[in-house]
Amino acid sequence: MPRDLLDGRLRQVLEMVGLWDRRSSKVQNFSGGMKRRLEIARGLLHSPRVLFLDEPTVGLDPQTRLSIWGYIDELRRAEQITIFLTTHYMDEAENCDRIAIMDAGKVIALDTPAGLKASIGTDTVRLRTADDDAVMHRELIRFAQDRLRFASALVQPVLFLFVLGTGLSSLTEGSTGGIDLRTFMYPGILATSTMFTAIFAAVSIVWDREFGFLREMLVAPVRRGSIIVGKALGGATVATLQSVVILLLAPVVGVSLTPVIVLVILALVFLLSFTLTSLGLVVVARIQQIQTVMGIMQMLVLPLSFLSGALYPVGNLPGWLALLVKLNPVTYAVHPVRTAAFSGLDASPQAVARLNPPITWNGWAVPALLQVGLVAVIGVIFLGVAVKQFQKVE
Q1: CA 155, 157, 159, 161 torsion: positive or negative?
Q2: Rounded CA separation 190/211 (Å)
């Protein structure tokens, strides 16, 4: 380049890359982006018709990368030159007129950005992980680490069983057929003791949403349905594990349990917990704040508990109360649990029938298997609704 043109050209290219005001500064004090812009200016100094840039934005932060591309686009228009550049960033390559994709030193594709996109438009990439049950494992880990939560969940059933049950025994001594009131209350309390744990397990979704963890799960290569199923199974498992402690109290209140009865009760408790956790997931699907969901859950848990027949026989009730009890899905889990617990009870059939009368629909006694099936169907419906709602969550 002629010396008489050098000063003018030098100013022109430095102004083009925004470094004219730093022309007297030492390069060693430049940032990475400034050094990269200086390299571009040096390549433009002799007014080339073709410019080769080798990964001009590698190692730069996103803001500086964007600035460098602004300079490249500007000099292409201002200098009317052809630019060849290499890059590993697909979003940068999209700015070029033509793209050549190379592998092992060979060009395997060459076309415009639109042409390359159209050539793979019919392909679908599916990612599936082998740990779709990770959410369930996370619930179990949280349960194992939160001992205070485990202890606090046992306070209410113990108070109902030993304080309320003992206190009311003197009033009901002559009307229970020789069966201790605590013995009668035990199966109902065992079933409903898992309600708070199960239904509030869904509340953790709101915590996850507030702290951003839910968004991370939703963008992970895991089906959203798997996340909800994992939550439901995790909450049901945690609630069932908690019921084991209540089962250990059976001898204290005069309930005799065999291994078979224990397995039946645990299966029924797990089914009820699954249904309640699924109900909780339906409720929290669109709720953003933990304060809101806590109030709603309290409104759900108390009516479901008191209208389940856990603390009183379901026979000879006033018409309005009998209707509400029969509409409550928890009733159809409490009754089979009490039936299983009473199967090993040393009491007269008349006393057992009085304290555990059958659930009837227009005089027809509902079979135990139908009651269990009804709870299972309701749980699956709740789970399906929850999955559908979370499919729409952004």
Answers
A1: negative
A2: 34
Question: What is the average pLDDT across 241-260?
Answer: 86
SS3 assignment, position 245: helix
The predicted pLDDT at position 30 comes to 84
Let me know if 194 is exposed, middle or buried by CB neighbors in 10 A (0-12, 13-18, 19+): buried
Burial per residue of 68-89, b for 16 or more beta-carbon CB atoms within 10 angstroms, e otherwise? bbebbeebeeebeeebebebee
- On the 0-12 / 13-18 / 19+ scale of CB atoms within 10 A, 310 is buried
How are beta strands 360-361 and 364-365 bridged, if at all?
Answer: antiparallel
Tokens of 208: 């996850």
Q: Beta 82-86 vs 50-54: how paired, if at all?
A: parallel
Predicted pLDDT at 216: 63
Q: By three-state DSSP, how is residue 182 classified?
A: helix
Closest CA to 134 of 215, 49, 226: 226
DSSP letters spanning 319-380: HHHHHHHHH-TTHHHHHHHHHHHHTT--S-HHHHHHHSPPPEETTEEPPHHHHHHHHHHHHH
SS3 category, 211: coil
Q: How confident is the model at residue 394 (pLDDT cuts 50, 70, 90)?
A: low
Predicted local distance difference test score (pLDDT) of residue 367 = 92
Using only C-alpha atoms, what is the Rg of the chain? 35
Rounded Cα gap, residues 70 and 241, in angstroms:
61
